[in-house]
């Protein structure tokens, strides 16, 4: 019954270990599937989030490009207005130069007229009277005054025209400066707002960079823990395989021990049968010894009676020396035959007693050896049962420990996978924010360049 119980316990442990191995395999497949689904889900969500971020950034870039194009259009209009002003200024300058040339021509003509007039007047002066000369000198003075007045008027007109042109140019330049100042102010306000947004984004990027660095450190630590957990799981699986190998080896040893135990049991049964047969033979021999002892006592009694008869015969010989010889001889022969028979029977009985005593001693020795062997076999059976029971208890405890370690390893792997997913998401978000900060930096630099150009 103990052997059957041990065999049932062994079968139960083997089934339990096989079930645990299948459970480990199913759990591993489930974890791998969950990990793959998590990666796919994470990639899908991350791609969707990145697409949304890209669309938002594209929309922001479109708005910025629209603003830049508006600024470029305004700058083009201003440049066109400046070109028009330059053209008007050039035309005014050309007109002033032409007026100056005409004035210079008129002045030269006037000088020529004056010279001719002086010649005529001088000639006339020499030919006419002093009164006429005086009148001529007065007319000449009047002409000179008129010429000077005409020159002054032309100079004033030219100066007025130049001042009017300069005033218009100054007004236009003031309008341009006002518009440029307003545009520069709007650009400065936009740049200040953008700088503020950029500073906020950079601060957020720095914070996220710190978080990303910390998360990367935690990610490396989690990955190291995950690798350690996988190594521990692999070591546990290897240990489980080793335990299964040891279990199979122990099962083989158990089967061989069962065979040896069966042989010992058969030998014990045979020895017990021999022991019972030896006990029966010993009882028979003891009965024979008792019967032979009884016969020996009877033989001793017959010997004593024969001695008595011999003594009586000797006495009769002494009393009747000349008695009947025939009776005497018959009696002597009968006594001698009785004595010989008694000696023969006594010798045979003593030999039989000696043989039976040796047989009894041998049977007792065999009985003792059989009892010792039976006790040794019982002790071996008890030792084997105890040893296998202890090994089975150890194997059960080891299997339970490995099961608990495997459960803990699965829980740790699941926790690390969740932490890894969260940290990878944070790292992706940090990378997206870094890209956004870089894009904002480039846009700010472009705005600065455009502002310097305008």
UniProtKB/TrEMBL annotation:
Keywords: Coiled coil. Residues 198-232, 385-450 form a coiled coil. It comes from the Eukaryota. GO terms for biological process: spermatogenesis. This is Uncharacterized protein. It comes from Muraenolepis orangiensis.
């Amino acid at each position: 019954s103990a052997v059957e119980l041990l065999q049932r316990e062994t079968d139960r442990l083997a089934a339990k270990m096989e079930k645990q191995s299948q459970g480990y395999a199913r759990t591993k497949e489930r974890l791998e599937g969950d990990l793959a689904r998590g990666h796919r889900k994470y990639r899908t969500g991350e791609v969707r989030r990145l697409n949304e971020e890209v669309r938002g950034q594209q929309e922001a870039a479109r708005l910025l490009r629209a603003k830049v194009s508006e600024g470029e259009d305004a700058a083009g209009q201003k440049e066109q207005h400046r070109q028009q002003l330059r053209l008007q200024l050039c035309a005014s300058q050309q007109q002033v130069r032409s007026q100056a040339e005409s004035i210079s021509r008129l002045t030269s003509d006037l000088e020529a007229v004056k010279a001719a007039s002086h010649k005529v007047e001088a000639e006339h002066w020499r030919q006419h009277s002093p009164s006429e000369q005086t009148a001529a000198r007065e007319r000449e003075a009047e002409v000179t005054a008129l010429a000077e007045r005409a020159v002054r008027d032309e100079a004033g007109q030219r100066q007025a025209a130049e001042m009017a042109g300069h005033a218009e140019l100054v007004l236009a330049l003031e309008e341009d400066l006002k518009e440029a100042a307003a545009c520069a102010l709007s650009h400065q306000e936009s740049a200040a707002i953008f700088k503020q947004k950029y500073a906020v984004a950079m601060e957020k990027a720095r914070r996220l960079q710190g978080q990303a660095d910390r998360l990367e450190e935690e990610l490396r630590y989690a990955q190291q823990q995950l690798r350690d957990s996988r190594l521990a799981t692999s070591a546990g699986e290897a240990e489980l395989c080793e335990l299964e190998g040891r279990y199979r080896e122990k099962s083989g040893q158990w089967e061989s021990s069962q065979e040896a135990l069966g042989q010992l049991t058969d030998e014990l049964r045979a020895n017990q049968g021999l022991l019972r047969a030896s006990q029966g033979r010993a009882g028979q021999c003891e009965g024979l010894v008792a019967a032979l002892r009884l016969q020996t006592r009877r033989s001793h009694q017959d010997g004593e009676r024969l001695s008595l008869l011999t003594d009586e015969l000797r006495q009769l010989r002494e009393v009747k020396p000349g008695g009947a010889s025939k009776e005497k001889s018959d009696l002597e022969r009968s006594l001698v035959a009785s004595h010989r028979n008694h000696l023969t029977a006594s010798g045979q009985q003593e030999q039989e007693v000696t043989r039976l005593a040796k047989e009894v001693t041998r049977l007792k020795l065999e009985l003792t050896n059989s009892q010792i062997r039976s006790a040794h076999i019982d002790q071996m059976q008890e030792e084997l049962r105890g040893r296998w029971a202890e090994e089975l208890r150890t194997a059960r405890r080891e299997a339970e420990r490995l099961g608990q370690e495997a459960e803990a390893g699965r829980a740790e792997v699941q926790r690390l996978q969740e932490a890894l997913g969260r940290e990878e998401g944070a790292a992706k978000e940090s990378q997206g924010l870094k890209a956004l900060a870089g894009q904002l930096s480039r846009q700010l630099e472009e705005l600065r360049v455009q502002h310097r150009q305008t």
